[in-house]
Inverse folding.
């Protein structure tokens, strides 16, 4: 497995090398300290995974993210950031990132998140996924329809990249029942797939913490 790690902090780079060795013993790690350097690397090589800090000197991290995605459209890209700002998380996902991992995460959480992304899922931090258990949630769409509390539970796990089987196991539901809920959620959000559902739901305030 070949991984490109884009970050300008030597200590963090060294720490991530140890974490990524646990992901794959045969991992080949290439590093870059800026988006400009990263773009030069991806222009001449293929990678299985790109990890990008969006707070870098030079080119804006989000601009760099978009350009790297343009050059490696089939390669999953995950943002690593010291910030858990919800707007940055959503911007990164909207630009094609398959995950957003806070640098404060433990090595085990990072490995779990990367395994999820490599299996085709999308990882978002709990700062974005946490729901409030009150009427602060904006559960209505433009047509006045609402999601049930159970569907919101399914949506939270769906947005985190969990499969129908995993959702069913966690919520003690039959997989067919989960499938019905997922179809209803996609219709409610007026989206075509699970990734779009996670982004749309977060933008509507269905997954983030409410006020008060």
């Amino acid at each position: 497995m070949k991984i490109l790690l884009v970050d300008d902090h030597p200590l963090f780079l060294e720490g991530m090398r140890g974490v990524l060795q646990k992901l794959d013993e045969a991992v080949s790690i290439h590093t870059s300290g800026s988006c400009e350097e990263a773009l030069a690397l991806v222009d001449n090589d293929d990678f299985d995974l790109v990890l990008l800090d969006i707070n870098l000197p030079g080119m804006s991290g989000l601009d760099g993210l978009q350009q790297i995605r343009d050059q490696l459209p089939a390669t999953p890209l995950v943002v690593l950031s010291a910030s858990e700002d919800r707007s940055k998380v959503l911007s990164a996902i909207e630009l094609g990132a398959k995950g957003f991992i806070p640098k404060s995460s433990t090595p085990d959480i990072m490995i779990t998140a990367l395994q999820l992304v490599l299996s085709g899922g999308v990882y978002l931090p709990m700062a974005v996924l946490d729901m409030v258990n009150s009427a602060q949630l904006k559960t209505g769409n433009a047509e006045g329809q609402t999601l049930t509390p159970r569907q919101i539970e399914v949506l939270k796990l769906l947005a985190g990249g969990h499969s129908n089987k995993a959702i069913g196991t966690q919520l003690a539901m039959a997989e067919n029942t989960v499938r019905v809920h997922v179809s209803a959620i996609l219709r409610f959000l007026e989206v075509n797939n699970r990734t779009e559902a996670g982004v749309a739901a977060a933008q509507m305030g269905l997954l983030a913490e409410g006020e008060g």
